[in-house]
Amino acid sequence: MDNTTYLNLAEKAFEQIIELIESINDDVEYEINGNILSLEFESGYEIIINKQEAMKEIWLASTKGGFHFAFTDGHWYSSKDSIDLLTKIREELKNN
User: Fold this and answer.
1) Is pLDDT above 90 for 25?
2) Domain that holds residue 51
3) Can you give the pLDDT at residue 42?
4) CA distance 49 to 66
């Protein structure tokens, strides 16, 4: 995958994450700073999602662990457990 394609797909993923946040949990504050999307819950729980351009991945870090997502077959899947990025975000939003 070339850089332009990766960046377009990663940007679309960030947009989908923000839409998901706004539809599920309005108690989450979010901020994009460069390649990093930070989510902060009222409880103080935080999730950091960042674009890893060199690896062509999206990484998610929280107190529950770190996950690396690669784009395959139209979705971002975790190398750890094959979960889809938006499914993982949905789980985090509902459990915090």
Assistant:
1) no
2) 3-94
3) 85
4) 10
